[in-house]
Amino acid sequence: MRAVGEADVIPVMGAESTPVWRDWEQAWEQALYGPGGFVRSGQPPAAHFRTSVHVGGLLAEAVVELLGRVDTALGHPATVDLVDLGAGGGELLAGVVERLPTGLRSRVQPLAVDLRSAPDGWSLPWATAMPDRLHGLVVAHEWLDALACPVVVEVDGVLRRVQVATGGPERDGSERAGPAADGAARAWWRRWGGGSRGEVGLPRDTAWSAVLSHVVAGAAVAVDYGVVRPADTLAAYRHGRQAPPVPDGSCDLTAHVHWPSVAARGGRLVTQAEALTRLGVSAGVPDPDGWGWLLHAERSGQLAELSDPSGLGGFGWLLAERGGARRLLG
To answer: According to the UniProt entry, what is the EC number of this protein (predicted)?
Structure first.
């Protein structure tokens, strides 16, 4: 990948060798969600990266506890919505439903929301958009990080949008500085202390506001990795390995969530390690009889991975409470 600079010029050798430059945000959106894009291709996320939903069932247990607290806060209504936004392979929602206590299971209305098609054999409701109004809990697990946003770079004091080559021979992620960023992007960059290059998180802020507008009563929680200052974090994953970020539809494109700006739209932020503790997730007490010790060891290992501050435990949980739900995490 070549560095971006004002003098970044590629000689034109003929039509067949002319690169096609696109704004990174547009190329990112198309590479993930356009026809033939990574998300639309139906590839399961688990084939490309490992995250909390793939570490046993402790995350599902945490969501069950959180949903129970929402249910109590709402006065145990006749129905409780449970939306898994950006459901991916559906592992989290399936795990939560499987672990629901009987009294709650009969009232919960689960829904997986994703642009992917439902996995083979899937039996729970699946949609491509959230309900207009819901009473319950929305879980957006690693959803925000996959929303495309502008990539900008400062060149001679001017904040410019970065372009990436999407055609011709330069399809290796080559970049160049494009036009000046608009006023909204510049204002966001200045407000949140952006440096020389990074991603403008305004589309994520707007998306989170839209999620909250659907929640009449209950809560929404976004679980993701993030930063507290804008930074250059654009990355790609393919077949379990990090790869150069190339918008060709062959890899998952992602960038860290800028938590302060998203939280300004609504919510309180804690780390995943803190959230699991506050929701009472533990390895339990080892049972000396039978295979109880093995189960305890397995849960201990899973909890250690989910709570590691340098890994998954450092993920943020942004919890926004709506319509009477209060202090759900204590």
So the answer is: 2.1.1.-
